[in-house]
Amino acid sequence: MTVLLRISAWILAAAVAFATLGPASLRPHSDLGQDGEHALAFVLVGLAFGLAYSKRRWSVAMIAVLLIGVLELLQFFAPGRHARLEDFVVDALTACVGFVLSAAVEWTIARLRTNTMTSEGPAE
């Protein structure tokens, strides 16, 4: 399961990198607006990486914020793209929200397992 989560996280990261650095005409657009699209994309990235690397969530989150900054700076070299501090802030904060959500999902699953095992009682 972990391998599948990790592959999915990296595919999602590659798609977000392409959308960030690729031609604007090939980027998906929605009714969420630019900040909403950024927020959705990076919440999903944070959630995916948080679930895929749960034992190293803090270090992966710090690396993610650093790489989000690099991705934003690379837009200086991408024709037709513009690096903006606002985009970095939205992307980094929402990725961190995704990491928090992954911790909440993991905590909830652990709690449900504990409750299930407690309610079943000892086997006879």
- Report the count of strand segments: 0
Share of helical residues: over 70%
Number of domains: 1
Alpha plus pi helix count: 4
> Rg, please?
18 Å
* Helix-strand category: mainly alpha
Q: Mind describing the biggest β-sheet?
A: none
Uncertain regions spanning at least 5 consecutive residues: none
The shape is elongated
Q: How would you sum up this structure, described in words?
A:
With 124 residues, the protein is mainly alpha-helical. It has one domain (2-22, 29-118). It has helices spanning 2-21, 33-52, 57-74, 85-120. Helix 1 (2-21) packs antiparallel against helix 2 (33-52) and helix 2 (33-52) runs antiparallel to helix 3. The longest helix is centred in the last third of the chain and has 36 residues, at 85-120.
Topology:
Blueprint: H1 2-21, H2 33-52, H3 57-74, H4 85-120
Helix pairs in contact: 1-2, 2-3, 2-4, 3-4
Report a brief summary of the structure.
By secondary structure, the protein is mainly alpha-helical.
Task: List key phrases describing it.
124 residues; mainly alpha; 0% strand
